[in-house]
């Protein structure tokens, strides 16, 4: 599939973001796993260096979404209650992470 066209988005700040793709697949991404999977350069660098991306999440604290804004047709920019706000989650990234079993659950 072309994985990238999204027909529905639902954000529950303290729980999850649900994304419906144009092949009628809806995926529910939990806030904790989403925060840890942040695709921004800073977080990628930390993961590659074996460092913590979000100490708060790893301590088991609830890190919620404080703001969400579409980044054109490309994806979504999420701000987090741990102060992090540079991550833009491309729809293709989210779908591939689900298809490969790394992120999300079918809703
Ligand atoms: Zn990040």
UniProtKB/TrEMBL annotation:
GO molecular function: metal ion binding
Protein species of origin: Ilumatobacter fluminis
PANTHER family: OS02G0197800 PROTEIN (PTHR35303)
Cited Pfam families: GBBH-like_N
Domain Gamma-butyrobetaine hydroxylase-like N-terminal: 13-95
Zinc found in the keyword field: no
Taxonomic placement: Bacteria, Bacillati, Actinomycetota, Acidimicrobiia, Acidimicrobiales
Keywords: Iron, Metal-binding
Protein's name according to its UniProt entry: DUF971 family protein
Top-rank lineage group of the source organism: Bacteria
